Amino acid sequence: MQTGKLLAAKSKNTYILKLLGDVRLTLCCTLDQLFEQVFSDREVESIVIDLSQADNLDSTTLGLLAKIAVKASVAGLNQPSIISSNSDITLLLESMGFRQYFLIMEQPVTTDKALEEVPQLAGSEEHIRTKVLEAHRTLMSMNDSNREAFKSVVQALEECPHPT
Amino acid sequence: MRKSQQEAALTYQQELEQENADLKTALAMLRQDQQAGYHVQQSLLPANPTQLDAYRLDYWLKPSLYLSGDFVDCWAQGEHQLLFYLADVSGHGASSAFVTILIKYLLGKYCEQEDFSPAQLCMRVNEELLAGGLDKHLTLVLGCLDTQTGNLTYALGAHLPVPLLIDAEGEVKELSGTGMPIGLFPDAHYKDYTCQFPQGGRLCIASDGILELLPGQGLEERQQYWHRWVVETGGNLEALLERLPVAEGSWPDDVTLMTITGC
Fold first, then answer.
1. Does ipTM come in above 0.95?
2. Could you tell me which InterPro entries the record lists for this protein (chain A) (predicted)?
3. What is the extent of the structural domain holding B7?
């Protein structure tokens, strides 16, 4: 297993964080600084986390990803996306309830060329809104308690003005 | 070699020896410090086994180094309720161990005040951890077993591997339900699940550290192994421990096993 590595890049209005190998974070000070930078950067509208080449994430890393979702929501950014093609990692993310906070996608991003296309994939607010609306509607249709729980979300999304 | 060079080499050697001795002393002090912490944490664990009416709780906890981010606790809530939990705090070592003590304190305090359901307890701990800004989260299995009726109410906080329930015939099934991790998301909701504890049955809970010791590649396969081991051992703690690799040095993560057996 490859030792964990963390790469970061900004492309247009999207911030991309790529995690590779066996990611075990024991010290997060530098990452906290990185976050400060990302969330104070007014140009950043969406965040994409690429886990397609990650083999394993430790609990600290998961905590960190969750923090991104919470911070993004507070900062009024688009729902962050996660690219996970490793079924094990997807299972882990799902067990942690991440699907509620991230748009989890399967497409791997492996080439520089593909990396440039990421903003189009996840940067479109309309696209994400539709996806989220769809997901919440599905959840609502699943049972009564869900219907109550997600009613306000769906309402808010439906009332949300479409980007021009 | 000239005389001055010889002297320089000798001085250098002496300096190195002194530094080596200093390092050894410092290391011994740190180790003693950790060991003292270990003893405090161990003394905060419940009696092993703990018996309440016809149910017995056994556990086994092995820290990765000295201090553990895994923790178990149980106590009699009222006369015939056994409240128990297994918590796995993110990371391991001292920082995670501090959080296990905080959790023990918080849950104890909440349960003294009022009768909270497992889901309500999860929600309160979630709020408290987020408010504390510790940047630590945990996965949790928290249950309350009525020892008179065998009724088990529990909440799950994103815990892996999924706890397993074995009936007297040896049939194993997963505790159903899902839940968010504790201390990550401000709006996390938790749900109380109920089931009947099978007569003469057993509940088997492990922290995810066990998955790193199991054969197989990946989470799914290792969870299947965990399931298989429980089937083959009937969830007997001693038998499960015999299957674990002999510990050499430190383990990658803390490992905890906990069983509740109905007699």
1. no
2. STAS_dom, STAS_dom_sf, UCP029548_STAS-type
3. 1-43
